[in-house]
Design goal:
The protein has about 210 residues and is α/β, with parallel strands linked by helices. The protein has two domains: about 120 residues, D-Maltodextrin-Binding Protein, domain 2 (3-Layer(aba) Sandwich), CATH 3.40.190.10; about 80 residues, D-Maltodextrin-Binding Protein, domain 2, CATH 3.40.190. Helices cover about 30% and strands about 30% of the residues. The two termini are about 30 Å apart. The structure holds 1-O-pyrophosphono-5-O-phosphono-alpha-D-ribofuranose (PRP).
């Protein structure tokens, strides 16, 4: 039985929707349930940030996770398929009315995506102080904790509501189907079959 780690929220729901289209029946976690067995698969419901961990440590064979997190975590996982949903960008956000200025002598950047942020600025030889936060990133520039943020922008509404705007996109992201190397070689036939079935559903959807 293939084990698939799914994040809570939209991406996980969209992933279960794909499985419904392939196998029929209802794929939905019961209230507060963390394991769902359906159609010969065992789905694990985990926090978004924990999907790569479950897959990498082989507690799950497969996972569905945003490219942003894959880039941030840098674990050696096989990226089997871009699922096309969960689209968002990782963007630099600054206060409305300001323009992006990397030449200031000291720049403080608040983010939960430390590695992506460090890479972006070090590739451009821009010295910054990175302030790691775990959520509500948009608050940081408003209270003087940081000059700018690097955060996920989906609709842009969170930034807008907090007087910020995305001044520059660092990367585009969407949900990927991933596997760890051992599971992939042990269950290659089943995994490639599943990927083909998902691809077929994705081709059929608008
Ligand atoms: C992300 C991000 C923003 C928000 C952006 O947080 O940190 O706050 O979504 O979405 P929008 O552009 O549509 O307003 P998320 O909801 O993923 O929560 P998290 O901080 O727990 O990761």
């Amino acid at each position: 039985m293939l084990r698939i780690a799914l994040p809570k929220g939209r991406i996980g729901d969209d992933a279960l929707g794909l499985f419904e289209k392939i196998f029929g029946g209802e794929f939905r976690f019961g209230p507060r349930k963390l394991i769902l067995e359906r159609g010969g698969f065992r789905f694990l419901r985990v926090r978004n940030q924990d999907v790569p961990t479950y897959v990498y440590h082989q507690a799950a064979d497969l996972g569905v996770v945003g490219l942003d997190l894959l880039e941030e975590r840098r674990l050696d996982l096989i990226r089997l398929l871009d699922l096309g949903f969960g689209r968002c960008s990782v963007s630099i956000g600054i206060r409305q009315g300001e323009s992006l200025d990397f030449s200031r002598p000291s720049l403080k950047v608040a983010t939960k995506l430390e590695n992506i942020t460090r890479d972006f600025f070090s590739k451009r030889a821009i010295p910054v102080e990175i302030i790691k936060l775990y959520g509500s990133i948009e608050l940081a520039p408003l209270v003087g904790l940081a000059d700018m943020i690097v955060d996920i922008v989906e609709t842009g509404e969170t930034m807008r509501q907090n007087g910020l705007y995305p001044a520059l996109s660092i990367m585009e992201s969407s949900a990927y189907l991933v596997a760890n190397r051992n599971s992939f070689y042990d269950h290659k036939g089943a995994i490639l079959r599943l990927r083909a079935q998902i691809e077929e559903v994705l081709r059929g959807s608008p």
